[in-house]
Known about the structure:
Layout: H1 14-38, H2 42-45, E1 50-55, E2 61-64, H3 71-85, E3 96-99, H4 102-105, E4 112-121, E5 124-134, E6 164-168, E7 171-172, H5 174-181, H6 187-215, H7 217-240, E8 245-254, E9 262-272, E10 275-279, H8 295-310, E11 324-327, H9 349-365, H10 371-374, E12 387-393, E13 399-403, H11 437-443, E14 446-453, E15 469-475, E16 480-486, E17 507-514, H12 516-521, E18 533-538, E19 542-549, E20 553-557, H13 572-581, H14 586-591, E21 597-598, E22 601-602, H15 604-619, E23 639-641, E24 644-646, E25 665-670, H16 671-677, E26 690-697, E27 704-712
Parallel strand pairs: 10-11
Antiparallel strand pairs: 1-2, 1-5, 3-4, 3-6, 4-5, 6-7, 8-9, 9-10, 12-13, 12-16, 14-15, 15-20, 16-19, 17-18, 17-20, 21-22, 23-24, 25-26, 26-27
Helix pairs in contact: 1-6, 1-7, 3-8, 6-7, 8-9
Amino acid sequence: MSGTPHNLPDGFDPVTLEVIRMRLDSIVEEMGIAMIRSSGSPVITEAGDFNTALFDPTGRIYAYSDYVQFHIGSGSVAVRNLVKAIEGEQLSPGDAFISNDPHTAGASHPPDTNVISPIFHGDELIGWAQSQAHLIDVGGMTPGGFAPGAHDCYAEALRLPPGVKIFERGEPVEWVRRILLNNVRVPALFWNDVRSLVASNNTGIRRLLATTEEFGLDRFRDYTKLSFELAEQVVRDRVREIPDGTYTAEEWTEHNGHVDELYRVACTMTKHDDQVTFDFTGSSEQTDGFVNCSYGALVGSVASAIVPILAWDVPFNEGVMTAFDIVAEPGSIVNPRPPAPISNGHLTTGARVSRVITKLMNEACRTSADDVIRDRTQGVWGDSWTGGISAGTTDDGEYFVLFNMDGGGMGAGAQPESDGLDCAGMMTQVNNMLPDVEMNEMLYPVLYLWKQLSVESAGHGAHRGGLGLRFAWTLHGAQEVTQTVFAPNAQVVADGFGGGLPGGGSGHEVWRRSNVAALLTEGRVPDPGTLDSAERELLAINQQSVAIRDGDVLVQWIAGGGGYGDPLLRDPRLVAADVRDGYVTEQTARHTYGVVVTDGTADETATTRARVALREERLGRSPERPVPADSPARASAPQRDADGWHVPASGARLGTGDDWRDHAHKVTHVAAERLAEHGVRVRPRTDGWKIVIDEFYSPSCGTLLDARVRVDTGAS
């Protein structure tokens, strides 16, 4: 364990400590393998949308697999609420409980279904095995469990609270099984996935019991307790390296399924010594749309951001999160009460929580005296599951529901040392996988026309944010489907850091009555340049009951990550390579990066002149201080020393106050229009509050210090 003290308490052996710790990690990974091999759902087998974990009898995490990170919260809340719900009830080996209700069981949304099984050592309860996966349908008004049209949680799904026993002494509880299968659209697939969750738990139970037999129960308990303490110690030591203080940030959830309004996700972070409190007071009240974030998803979304920033090399267990407190008002969008609908809250508001935590940690870490902690800053990830669910009947008469897991192809934020990863997934789901085209085409009546990186999605910078995915498919083997879509990162896009620009947004279009059949008949591969259509229908950010018919084409594009550092600090050779590889157009290279590319190579002299001209354009005059051509990416992020704030790229000073922005040259533009100038696609907002971008430049050298997307509410 990185950061483990050299001197363990008396009587503890470091080898045994590591063997038991790694054994637990191996067990939860093996549980995941058992689920994949026994499930028939591509959401599990192809995309890995699940988690597995082991808990102690009170619900503290022994070990957690790294498939979907925000299930850290929903799984933990589910186990703890189960323990409370069944207190005093008789338990037996072979029992298993099922739950999916976000309000009472902590689920991130109803399709994410928990199966939790007790673990007995003789007659003693020693823990819980927990498996959670996205099941393809859970009833409710809309196939697939996402319900943009729902006004309450009762319309979204069959709600299973803590304490519903699905297996008893190893056998299905038949009357519960009948109720469940009577309320879902694909009962055979649903039941097989439930059995795969039970199989996963059974695998974990067998392996944990073998471990306790090998080491002895008392010894196992002592060493797992020590693992908790060491993980907590490492994280608290790193928290101490962050300056004490209060930090604030906000994000905005877009469109609640009914109206195109914006909902505030506000957070105040207070750091004192080795403890951090995240207070979400000031967030919007819960809404009657499906974007409310359950408390379980809130905890998981916070954890998903904290772990890679401060606990990137610490084996995850209960101790990792001990240094962090979460405050959220009941009845708010981040801790709703029934009957608030909630079926997409984790991928909308939950994703905004991870983004706001990233912003807060960026501001806190940038002022640390520790180089390692200071380098945990990053561009904000393009967190936004851009979803599509298709339901209908094939030409062979078979009913199907396709939840397209390609929606996970969003870009990561750029890092201090590198570009962001393309199609990285959400910060909360970094091990989520994109499905094979062939697998989707084999299982469902769709034919992919293209699947490629979206050059309109990256946040430009000295290090470029990761690109999102774009793809298109048409029906092949069905005459019509009903489509549900959600694109929650369309308007308020992911910020960069230290002068990096925001990334692009997400969206869907239906190209109606296209020439796709004619092109295929001619033996030509349809692409955006050859495909014609009678109409291109831009869908709402959230929309259900969209009819897609034979000959139509569904086109989807997914958000990119924010950049890191002023684009004028990017190595011209990298920009030229981006142009050659098709990541950046020549126009963007010239206008955004100040790089003149001739015959695939950066023209050094012309580039130097272009960059000087762009800095003059930023300030409306010639800069007073030069910026060396070899300044590193991080050199545009203001830093603080004993004399106040300064710009590392040029040495220009930015005052001695708490906020360097007070001494910067600020320019504000409409975000969609400004980013379009950089070749980045963002959905314009046509009414209500404006979405703007504030750009802060050094008045001395013209370096872009920060570019921040902001919702202009008109408040003074």
